[in-house]
Amino acid sequence: MPANPAGDVPPHEIPITGELDLHTFRPEDLKELLPAYFQACLARGLTEVRIVHGKGTGTLRETVHHHLRRSPFVARFRSGDTGTGGWGATLATLVPPYPK
């Protein structure tokens, strides 16, 4: 791929599967990334989302939880269990859209 003269990183397509791996994103991207991903999930009928943030120091997990607490798209969330990533993942239940 040729170098981008503006120095911008080209956007990449995120598969909408109900699982969002944050390892390739910067924490400052979450404010826009999470709501956009939740909207895309809801448009596909997905109301359960697994957000993989890793264990690390817990800073990214806390940042994710901060955004989830304030999101109108999130009904509730919890840390993963042993089968879903433990402390390294958060499971969010999205508010289903109202029928038209």
Task: Let me know the number of strands.
Answer: 4
Largest sheet: 4 strands, mixed
Strand line-up in the sheet with most strands = 1-2-4-3
General shape: globular
Q: Radius of gyration, rounded?
A: 15 Å
Task: For the record, give the distance between the C-alpha atoms at the N and C termini, rounded to a whole number.
Answer: 44 Å
State the gist of this model:
This protein has 2 helices and 4 strands.
Description of the structure:
- With 100 residues, the protein is of the alpha+beta class.
- The chain has one domain: Ribosomal Protein S8, Chain: A, domain 1, CATH 3.30.1370.
- 26% of the residues lie in helices and 20% in strands.
- It is built from two helices and four strands, in the order E-H-E-H-E-E.
- It has helices at 30-43, 59-70; strands at 19-21, 48-52, 74-79, 89-94.
- A four-stranded mixed β-sheet has the order 1-2-4-3.
- The radius of gyration is 15 Å and the shape is globular.
- The protein starts with 18 loop residues before the first strand and ends in a 6-residue tail after the last strand.
Identify the notable features of this structure and list them briefly.
alpha+beta, 100 residues, four-stranded mixed β-sheet
